[in-house]
Structure formats: C-alpha cells, structure tokens
Amino acid sequence: MVPAAYRDLLRTPGLGRALVTSLLARTGAPTAGLAVLLLVVSRTGSYRSAGVISAVWVAGVGLGGLVTSRLLDRGRPARPVLLTGAALSATGLVALALVDTGSTPALAALTAAAALTAPPVVPTSRALWPVMLSDPGARGTMYSLEATVQELTFIVGPSVAGAAAALGSPSLAVALAGAITLAGVAGFVTTSGLDRLSGGAGRAPVRRADLTPLVPLYLASALLICGLSFVEVGLVGAAGDAGNSAAAGPLLAVWSAGSLIGGLIAGARPPRRGPARRLLVLLPAVAVGNLVLAGTGGRLLAIGAVLVVSGALVAPALGGIYTLVERRAPAGAVAQTFAGLTVFLLGGGALGSALAGSVVEASGPRTAFLLGALPPALAAVVLGLAVARRPARPRAAGPDRDPAAALPATNPPAVDRAA
Q1: Domain containing 342: what range?
Q2: Would you tell me the crossing angle of helices 314-327 and 248-268 to the nearest 10 degrees?
Q3: pTM, whole model, 2 decimals?
Q4: N or C: which end of the chain has fewer CB within 10 A?
Q5: What would the pLDDT profile of 66-108 be if each residue is shown by its tens digit?
Q6: Residue 391: C-alpha distances to residues 289, 397, 405, 406 (Å)
C-alpha cells in the first residue's frame, strides 16, 4: 500500500510525470561515474589515477551545473539548456571511450570536457517542486520522496555500467552512459512544468551574501558525500582484492537499495521535531555504518549485508538537507541555490574520491572505510554548532518547531519562492 503522504502528493497534476522523467534523465550520471572509474583502472592500473579522474568528473559536473543553473534562474528556457548540455556531454563521453590512451592527464582532460557540459538535471528538477507545490509541508515530503527514488538511478546506473564492462568493456560502459544521458534528457524536456521555470528574465544572480546562511548546510552536505565517496572507492577496491572487479556494480546497487528502503520509510513519517534534529541522529549513524564496513574483512557478502543497513540512512539524510536548503533559498533563485548545494555535494565527492583512491592504493579498502567515518561525524558537528547558535527569540513555527529555524534564513517561510 502506498503511504497516504505519497498518494496525496502524486495527485498533483503533472508531478508524477516530472518525477519519473527527471529520474530517467539523471540515470546517465551514476552510470558514467562508475564507468569512468572502471575505464581508468583498466587503462592505467592505478587506483590513484582512478580516484583523481573520478574527482575531475564530479567536480566538473558541479561547476558546470552552477553556470547552467544561473542561466535558468535568469530566464533562459530550460529545454535548450538541457538538450545542449546533454548532447555535448554525451559527445565527450563517447570521445573518452574511443580515444585509446592510458595517460592520466589525457583521460582527465576528456573526462572534464564531458563533465563540465553535463546537463543540470538535478537542480532543474529540484527547482520544479516549489513551482508545482505551494504547500511547504508537501514540498518537504517531495524532497524526501525525491531523495529516496533517486536511489533507483544509483541502482540501475552502476548495474548497467558494471554489466557493460563485464560483458563488453569499460569503454562500452562509458559510451553507453553517454547514450543514456542523451535519451534521458530528451524525455525530461517533455515535462510541461519546465515552461514555468523560464519566467524570470532579468533576475540578478545570487549574491554571496544570499548564500551565507546556507553555508553550514552546504558544508554538512559536502562532508556527508565525502564520507560516502570513501565507501564507493573502497567498494571498488574490495571487489578488486576479491578478484571480482565487476562485483562493484552490484555492491553499489545493494547500497542504493538499502537507501531506497530507508528513504521510503522515513519519507512516509515526517520528523515530528523537524529535519534538523533527524539529521543530527542520521549523520553519526552513517559514520558508524562506515566503521562497521571496515570490520567485514573484505568478504563481499558481509559487505553487501552491511550496505543494506547503512544505506538505509543515506536517503533520509539527503532528504533532510534538501528540505532545509529549499526553505532558505533566496526568492526566485531556487535553481542556483540547489546548484550551489550540488557544487558542495560534488566537491565533497571529488575530495573523497581523490583521497580514497590514494588510500586504497597505499593501505587497502579497509582503511578507506575507516577514514570514511570521519566526514559524516564532522558533518554532525557542523550542523549541531549551527543549530546551537539560536537567536534570543527564535521565530515560532508551531508545536513542531524545527531547531533549524536557528539557522539564519534568507527569507521568511511565507515568501513564495516560486515567484
């Protein structure tokens, strides 16, 4: 049975179509993420090179998305922006697959070209929800649902990449990621709600001061993803040590499946004391899960079992971050605000991937899992300090007042950020 909170949400005209097509459009990114990692390992034989180039990929996607999201918030029609990015990024991925080189700088340059032009599907879709949903509670449920169902892309994408690499080659997996990106975006641009994102001609870009109140949330998100990136690269290393590199795909899929289950449960039961308090519990729990991975002794079945449980914490944590960020987005700049969040998320992922590659190379995956516990623990500290700095008179928000209200807000909750 579908929980009532989700049933009511999906009755909104056009919302279900927008969600499904956005998921199809974003599947290319996780497909490419693992495919590029496998390609670099196969060509260079170095996990250090793989970590560096994985960092180039995620950082390039974040920086490119920040530029293109600014175009959207300034009134550029979404469809041409998305389609142009998809075509350029797909071309870059095909070039990466076809150029037969083991040079790390050359592979990094080709990866950067594909990443910087990647279409801004994620910030675009997250800017749609405030446009389509006027009720803040419904938007919070939507961000929880989105954080949950997006795990399907991390199940399907890495599984496709792993299967293509095993049955064909890593080059085939990279080229396939390009094709998925182009086909997915072609479906997403048929969403009718995108027309409502292009009415902001003449809006000024977000100023640095507008984003300052969001910095604690941005930092916490970056630290969370940094820790998850240690796990991701560690899983590739563990699969390689076990003599079965292709098992990395199924392990990532199991991890995402756990996140999907956890997110569905958490999204159907909104936090009674607000998303910030829930985050302060979830972030340390993620750190503990990474420590438990280090105790599996590299046994793939044991790793998979732990990933189901630890993965159940990921989607609820991300959903809470999305909700808090949207509530503090500057008026008329939701796409840019989420693109800024994406930069921090992918920046944290880039740092984690680069460090984890060197760690796996030098000390093995167990050390990567151990070190991966530190960033989410620090994220809890950052968020906790921000919440603790309450003003003398925190604004009231009813009996379920969220302690995150203590974080400075760029706009009152009543402001219609869809305007």
Answers
A1: 14-190+207-406
A2: 60
A3: 0.67
A4: N
A5: 788 777 766 678 888 899 999 999 999 999 999 999 999 999 9
A6: 34, 14, 9, 6
